[in-house]
Structure formats: C-alpha cells, structure tokens
Amino acid sequence: MIYPVVAYGDPVLRKVAIDFTKDELNEVSTLIDDMFETMSGAQGVGLAGPQIGKAKRIFVIDSNLMLEEGSEETGYKGAFINAEIIEEFGEDVGFDEGCLSIPGINGEVVRPEGVIIKYLDESLKEREEKFTGVTARVIQHEYDHIEGVLFTDYLSPIKKRLIKSKLNNITKGKAPHAYRMRFPKK
Fold it and tell me: Is 142 a catalytic residue?
C-alpha cells in the first residue's frame, strides 16, 4: 500500500516518535513493505514513520540510489526499527539535502561523516553498525525525522528567510509534487 507523504506543517513531523512494543513488532513487516513501496513511488532514498503519519521509531532507506556511477562507496537498503544513534564521528561535511515532506526545497546541511547506530532490522534482529558517507547521511536525515527534526532546522537564517514563502505554500497545500501527499488540515 502506498501511503500519502505527510507535508511540512503537519504536527506529526515535529513529534518525537515512540518505540514499537513487542506486540506491535509482529505487524511491522507489512509496514516496512508499504514504506519501501511509498518511498520508491515518490523516488526517495529514505522515509520515516512520521512522514506517513505514524509517530513510531521506524525508517527505511536505500542509499544505493544516491551513489554516483563508479563510486567506491557501497550503499545500503534496509529498515531501522526502534533506532538509537550511539555516536556520530568524523569530519563535518556539507551536502545539499531535500525531503519528500518538503517538496521543491533543498539546502546545504552539515553533518558528521559517520554514525554508529543500534536498531532492529526487518528480521527483528538487533544490530549495532557503523555507517559512513552517503549512507550515514541518509540515516542521520531519517533519524532526525523520528526525533521531530527537519533538515530545514539546520539551514542558515538567510536561507530560512529565502524559503519561508515556499514553506508557507506547502502548509497551504500549494506545493508542486509528483506523488501522493497529505497536507495539513486548515
């Protein structure tokens, strides 16, 4: 099932998501499949629970889609359930980020080049792994979503002023988009 992507301005995007309980984990495989389908349909590289209206600690990524041809970096496709970042490390690196919930807006976000994260994978196996490069960036972006943080929060005050009218248009449902979206109710 393809979910509509929740647009900027919806309160669910600002909530700190909660863990899945053991009972809820029995139902998570269908949700993961639906999230991958939704992400793919919107041509995204990551999607978090709040972006489909669920304030739960889950996100899916496929960083392979961001790798340039001939890159020596390896991508990662998988689900992160009840995730907790243990450590961020390395040089701070700037990169032009966008978000399915904020269509048509991009901006440079500076993030550490690596991350160590503890999570349950789609098989509900507990993992603690180290990621770097593009994959670390996608994880950090999606992890921010389950913490109620958006990439726009990292932008400079000048850039925030420049995009203010575009953000207002998104909250009013006046944003061009090529996939199903759920805009905030008036």
Answer: yes
